[in-house]
Design brief:
Two copies of one chain form a homodimer. Chain A is of the alpha/beta class and 310 residues long. The first copy, chain A, is 40% helix and 19% strand. Chain A is built from eleven helices and ten strands. Chains A, B: GO terms for molecular function: inorganic diphosphate phosphatase activity; manganese ion binding.
């Protein structure tokens, strides 16, 4: 029988890649035949975690139906964030912590979503429920997912459960949460040697509301100027993406991980909707969003609401 | 703060009603303020369980947004099977064992689905995970849900977990699974004093595939003739529903709980699709489906497939 493929979303972040690894480890430990794969190459932050815990980079796929009938999704459920032929596959399981949208199956499945900060916090529960021990390197990767998604517990998406899980995993992995955590996040802010196209695709998600196509890309930094010194180049690249993909709205969210604020760059015909959504006025397509760090909790819900009210 | 309302699907069956009761009990035990309600009156089988375990009938609602902001769904997720104003409400949790379709949220939520025979089997796990003791009468209602959904373990949807859960719950409730189980199922087959309209609405679900509106009603019996002696009356009532609701296809599935076979009555413009779906030829709108007892596992998947291939 062909292997069940397990993967996170397109433009994978650290949670997407490490959750595929940890959930596949768990599934294999309880007797399934699975392989973790990725829908894109790891970003610098994820690569830092993989190197630190001596784990091989995952095989990248763009289609799955040629090699398997069944897949399991981690850290996403919306079909437009998944493998291109997702509609042709049987989805055996989903482990996620996002809203549910544009997702459907023909058959009943295992679906486990909780409103926590990171998929790994849920996967830790599953390890316990199945009485499977977590090897130190897997625990380290799971910890990395939590640090990344919660910005070292600073994101409003972070829950008590995430913090507790992170400390438990750190002790199995044998690392100091704060020291390792800041090193991991900083590894992801190396922007200087990257082209605009690359910066836009590092961690980006698309969604549709009432027929409007929206894309929200996010970049972490330790200084807004590291990104905005490339503003002209970024605007060109965003406009190119808008015209190719027909986006109505493109938000680039640049998040300062030290101050926990974001600066957004907004383009597209529906840009005024972003102004309504956040109660801001764009100046030269820019605005500061004080205290905003979470795309899932602070960007997508107000955008969705503003788009639905149109 | 207003109470969180918890309910199962429209045209509630025993699992829909008893799962609202048991999940609400659990939520209240862990500190939430919830009330179990129903989207319809209990059928005879459910009423037998409620009477046996001395539980009050649930309040029936048709709208929820006038009295609460948040709801939790059990035993369903598809919006067309839910309360009429579901799109205006925050869905805090879903506990279900069906496929996922026509379901979406703006925010992350708790979603727990497993491919088991009954929602109560999942709720039993949740009681254990939260270390909450189950009172005997709640255990009895949970057991009733499992017996009803699995036709006393004869349905192909029934898993080892359901059987184990049922025996565990029977021992808490202090009843014999087989004796109580057959009494419960028989209580649901009292057809003689019911009008056709009533029989069609006892346990019916609607869904849409590729723009085609489908309704599948199911009736349990101990003899097909008990139902088919009212065939003319049933055809009239089905045709009336088809014209009012614009169904493309209406299936009445009559299931003999002693023999584990079903006889279907099929009407609507898309009736030939049902013939393709099950590889049958309808005679006077009827056909026998040998060994078919489960709408979820043996009726809806082939129908969905045949409708998608059109």
């Amino acid at each position: 029988m062909s292997k069940i493929l397990i993967f996170g979303h397109l433009n994978p972040d650290t949670d997407a890649i490490t959750s595929a690894i940890s959930f596949s480890y768990l599934q294999n430990a309880i007797g399934k035949n699975t392989e973790p794969v990725a829908l894109g190459i790891p970003n610098d932050e994820t690569q830092y975690a993989l190197d630190y815990f001596k784990t091989k980079t995952l095989r990248v796929i763009t289609k799955a139906s040629e090699e398997t009938l069944e897949v399991m999704l981690v850290d996403h459920n919306e079909f437009q964030q998944s493998v291109s032929d997702i509609s042709d596959l049987t989805i055996g399981a989903v482990i996620d912590h996002h809203r549910i949208s544009n997702f459907q199956t023909v058959n009943p499945l295992y679906y486990r979503a909780e409103p926590v900060g990171c998929t790994q916090t849920i996967i830790l529960k599953l390890f316990k429920e199945n009485h499977i021990q977590i090897p130190p390197e897997i625990a380290g990767l799971m910890l990395s997912g939590i640090i990344s998604d919660t910005l070292l517990f600073k994101s409003p998406t972070c829950t008590e459960e995430d913090i507790k899980a992170a400390h438990e995993l750190a002790s199995i992995a044998g690392v100091n949460v704060n020291v390792y955590g800041l090193d991991l996040l900083k590894a992801g802010t190396n922007i200087s040697d990257k082209k605009a196209e690359e910066l836009l695709s590092m961690d980006a998600k698309s969604f549709e509301v009432d027929g409007k196509k929206v894309r929200v890309a996010q970049i972490n930094c330790v200084d807004f100027n590291d990104v905005f010194c490339k503003k002209a180049e970024l605007i060109n690249a965003i406009n190119k993406e808008i015209s190719i993909q027909n986006y109505d709205l493109f938000l680039l969210v640049v998040t300062n991980i030290l101050d926990s604020d974001s600066k957004i760059l907004v383009l597209g015909n529906a840009a005024p909707i972003a102004e309504n959504a956040f109660g801001i006025t764009l100046h030269e397509n820019e605005a500061i969003l004080k205290g905003v760090v979470s795309r899932k909790k602070q960007i997508i819900p107000p955008l969705t609401k503003a788009l639905s009210n149109k």
